[in-house]
Specification:
This protein has 803 residues and is mainly beta. It has a 9-stranded mixed beta sheet. The protein has an 8-stranded parallel β-barrel with strand order 2-3-4-5-6-7-8-9. α3 links the parallel β4 and β5. α3 packs parallel to α4 and α5 runs parallel beside α6.
């Protein structure tokens, strides 16, 4: 793969990071996973629309916009309940359009909404994909009349409104030619041209579709319109970094906007967010994409426009003196040749940093991507740098960053021993191997190696994995699995036939909707057999990842790769030690780090800087002296840590630990004062064995906890909750889970509304962290539900943000 830094393609658009029904509620997904992605656009239903139980455009607008979101497409036909939409005639539809547009047009932010009058009209209402010429002509003429009618009605109610269409389910040159000619003649052109790319063949054909569309514009005499491919990719692509990079590369190259499809549940950014605040591998790829700055440059892959091959995109920012390459989609080895490296920007030697974002499943947490290599590389006489990549994994994405090499040698990347083992290649007893997520089964769920082992619920069901490790010690064992049994399920894990331990798997959406469960095992050097045998419920096994572990997890977040605000400068005078340079912060400057925590708890944070730096987290601020450890309470998943300084050269923020609960105040359900319809009931799956139910709702149940803290200040209130609220919309096209809300009051303060996503079953307990301010001494924390039933609560935990 070659990257030509001298061949600019224009400023990075970041247009391909959108999602259809990516948000379901205010707070789902959480702010900490929304803000870093700089999402340019989402598509949602009209407020109160009947197509889905949540995802209303105005409901999610506040959280989307406060986290830097761009614009919201409103799918007007999603006001209807049926799929395909019930066809009640244009007059019925116009009456509904009137109400939607009037509500949006009355808002001060109305110009951040784009109206999409029709959704997939080639298949719904008009049959514009008909092969019979007469049938097509009749449908076309009816559609064009209705387009004109609806377009003019929107503009009458909302002058200057932006309108998108025709929004076909697939690219149709015949229709687009007729549509653009008509729309130009009748002065009803859309401002945004939309269609869908929903097949694996799109990875091959999109470029031809795009070029054909631009040719039609020129032929008809229409100025170039903004293009938004407002549904793209299949189930096998979503959440998979190595698949997503193939789609994003072709959209960014053509400077079009694009939004991932909605095949399952709303509120998880099309499969890239676990629970509400936890990144998976797909999220980290989009975080990398958001971090591209400057201009994109030409990338020439080995096989352009070919499905499931090595593809990539790249950027050059001469201001911060960085070149970045994102790539993936194939296995084996590859050399990335970066050409025309400008000497006046990078000098004669660069540092190349290589990192990997792997596939962790749709519901599998993924820590900050591991740095695989950090090396000094001499720029060749022809101005090129070659970065060798060995052992690529097809489902992974990789990032290469080039920066100038200063004095000294960068710290080598600590890469522990690891190995992966496919379940279908192990010894399977009582189960069966199923293939899905292939090119020919594109809407099958992704699976590592496209195969997984299911039907392991019988008493004799088991999979024996033969593994070989090079040294004695503790190992992290990550199991990629699916659990569609309707509640927590278990398997029995044994090593070499020894006494088994129980592994409990949280529910996933279904048996093929992959999650990731981590456990610890102690192994001696040599070959062992790890057995996962049936327990309670049925668990599908996909892959084991085994990684040597010598201590608590530790990650160095390099300041030169952080998100920035203001105008900090970049200093690459020294590449020795932690970090490959320094971000020089002055007044008004900031560096924002996205810090991953595997669980709620305390972690050790150390700044590598030339002077004191202020760190802001969860509404608390603490001054960090260079090299001095701080104890900070992090929420499970992503945490936004902002660094500011009067004047400091910041190299890195180092974070380590497993999430200690030392010093955390934990109060179980049995310690709450209950009123109204609230009650405590036994629950084997709840932490502590009890759950509080009946909060809010018709019984107006409340639970009050008395918490005694020794130090005042900002705390994280971690709520352990569960609920499985769903709304059947009369069709099974999507998984129609819904969220619940609870009102939280601290002392006599105003209640705070918190949103709790569905946990896939009523017996799976997740956590939601809410920042609160507590006074020294006894405080009361009260839960109720003003808008219906609140989730069940097993316990709460409180920790001061700065421990």
């Amino acid at each position: 793969m070659t990257v030509d830094l001298a061949a600019s393609e224009g400023p990075v658009l970041h247009g391909a990071n959108g999602a259809l029904y990516g948000l379901s509620d205010d707070g789902v997904p959480g702010d900490a996973v929304l803000a870093p992605l700089r999402i340019t656009g989402i598509s949602q239903k009209p407020e109160g629309g009947a197509q889905h139980p949540n995802g209303d455009a105005l409901t999610v607008a506040e959280s989307f916009f406060r986290n830097g979101g761009g614009e919201i497409n409103v799918l007007l036909q999603d006001v209807y309940a049926q799929w395909p939409y019930e066809d009640l005639g244009i007059d019925d539809y116009l009456a509904r359009v009137d109400g939607i547009v009037r509500e949006i047009a009355a808002r001060p932010d109305r110009d951040r909404f784009v109206y999409v009058p029709f959704n997939e009209p080639d298949q719904i209402w008009y049959r514009l994909d008909a092969t019979d010429p007469a049938e097509y002509a009749a449908g076309r003429d009816r559609f064009l009349r209705d387009w004109r009618t609806v377009h003019r009605r929107i503009r009458a109610l909302h002058p200057g409104a932006r309108i998108a269409g025709p929004n076909e389910a697939a690219f149709h040159a015949r229709l687009l030619t007729d549509f653009l000619a008509f729309a130009r003649r009748e002065d009803v052109l859309p401002q945004v041209m939309t269609w869908h790319e929903l097949d694996s063949s799109s990875l091959r054909d999109f470029q031809a579709h795009y070029d054909a569309y631009r040719a039609i514009e020129r032929e008809v005499g229409v100025p170039a319109l903004t293009v938004n491919i407002d549904e793209y990719a299949n189930r096998r692509d979503l959440s998979v970094p190595g698949q997503l990079v193939q789609w994003v590369a072709m959209f960014e190259r053509n400077k079009v906007y694009a939004q991932q499809a909605y095949w399952d549940a709303a509120g998880n950014l099309s499969g890239n967010v676990v629970r509400m605040n936890i990144p998976n591998g797909g999220w980290w790829f989009f975080r990398w994409y958001a971090g591209l700055t400057g201009d994109t440059v030409r990338v020439t892959p080995p096989e352009p426009h070919t499905v499931d091959t090595l593809q990539g995109l790249a950027s050059l920012d001469t201001g911060c003196r960085q070149a970045q390459v994102l790539l993936g989609g194939s296995t084996g080895d590859a050399d990335v040749v970066v050409q025309n490296v400008p000497r006046d920007v990078f000098g004669r030697t660069v540092v190349a940093i290589v990192a990997e974002a792997g596939w962790s499943g749709y519901e599998g947490p993924h820590a900050a991507p591991r740095v695989l290599a950090r090396t000094r590389v001499r720029v060749d006489a022809d101005g090129s740098v070659t970065v060798p990549l060995r052992g690529l994994r097809r489902m992974s994405a990789y990032r290469i960053v080039l920066v100038p090499a200063g004095r000294g040698t960068p710290a080598p990347a600590p890469v522990p021993w690891s190995a992966s083992y496919e379940a279908e290649d192990a010894a399977v007893t009582g189960g069966r191997v199923r293939t899905h997520g292939t090119v020919s089964d594109a809407n099958g769920y992704a699976a590592s190696g496209t195969r997984a082992v299911e039907s392991l619920g019988s008493p004799g069901g088991r999979v024996d994995f033969t593994v070989t490790v090079p040294a004695d010690g503790g190992h992290d064992l990550a199991v990629l699995y699916g659990n569609g049994s309707g509640g927590p399920a278990t398997q029995r894990l044994s090593v070499d036939g020894g006494a088994p331990v129980t592994v409990t798997y949280p529910s996933t959406q279904n048996a093929a909707h992959g999650g990731r469960k981590e456990v610890r095992v102690e192994l001696t050097a040599g070959t062992h057999v790890l057995t996962l045998a049936a327990g309670d419920g049925e668990v599908t096994l996909d892959r084991l990842d085994l990684t040597a572990r010598s201590g608590p997890p530790a990650t160095a977040y390099e300041a030169t790769l952080a998100e920035t605000a203001g105008a900090p400068s970049y200093d690459y005078a020294s590449s020795a030690g932690t970090g490959t340079g320094a971000l020089v912060l002055g007044p008004g400057d900031a560096a924002v780090f996205d810090v991953y925590a595997p669980r709620d708890g305390y972690y050790t944070c150390v700044t590598r800087a030339s002077a004191e730096v202020d760190l802001a987290l969860h509404g608390a601020t603490v001054t960090a002296a260079p090299g001095r450890p701080l104890r900070l309470y992090l929420a499970a998943g992503n945490n936004r840590v902002t660094a500011t300084a009067g004047q400091a050269a910041l190299r890195a923020l180092e974070v380590s630990g497993d999430g200690s609960e030392d010093g955390v105040l934990v109060l179980g359900a049995g310690g709450a004062e209950l009123a109204g319809g609230a009650r405590a009931v036994d629950c084997a799956h709840a932490p502590g064995g009890l759950r509080l139910t009946g909060l809010g709702g018709d019984g107006a149940g409340t639970a009050r906890f008395r918490v005694d803290v020794s130090r005042p200040g900002r705390h994280l209130l971690v709520v352990h909750y569960a609920h499985d609220d769903r709304r059947d919309n009369g069709h099974a096209y999507n998984t129609d889970i819904v969220s619940r809300t609870a009102d939280l009051s601290v002392g006599g303060g105003a209640p705070l509304r918190a949103t709790f996503k569905n946990t896939w079953s009523g017996d799976d307990f997740w956590t939601l962290a809410v920042p609160v301010d507590l006074a020294a001494g006894v405080n009361t924390v009260t839960f109720t539900g003003a808008d219906g039933p609140a989730p069940d609560i097993a316990r709460i935990a409180l920790g001061r943000v700065v421990g």
